[in-house]
Design a protein that fits this description.
With 60 residues, the chain is α+β, with helices and mostly antiparallel strands. It has one domain (4-52). Helix content is 25%, strand content 13%. It has one helix and two strands; from the N terminus they run ββα. A two-stranded antiparallel ribbon has the order 1-2. A hairpin with a 4-residue loop joins strand 1 (20-23) and strand 2 (28-31). The longest helix is centred in the C-terminal third of the chain and has 15 residues, at 38-52. The protein is elongated, with a radius of gyration of 13 Å. It binds zinc ion. Residues 8, 10-11, 13, 30-31, 33-34 line the site of zinc ion. Zinc ion binds next to strand 2.
Length: 60
């Protein structure tokens, strides 16, 4: 199991602080390859959706 802080949340590649930035929307690190891409946006949304699952009532 990898350390979340050392893994890009988009491509799951190992990263260091030198080649990554923190995505402040989800508070997870993203590598320079994924930064600003559509893939990042998609992963961002999925991360937020999975976070919201615990809080949002599904009984609409
Ligand atoms: Zn990445």
């Amino acid at each position: 199991m990898g350390d979340l802080k050392n893994t890009c949340f988009v491509c799951k590649e190992p990263i260091t602080t030198e080649n990554s930035e923190l995505n402040t929307t989800v508070n997870l690190p993203v590598c320079m390859k994924c930064k600003g891409t559509d893939t990042e946006k998609k992963a961002e949304k999925e991360a937020l959706d999975s976070l919201a699952d615990g809080f949002v009532c599904g009984c609409i």
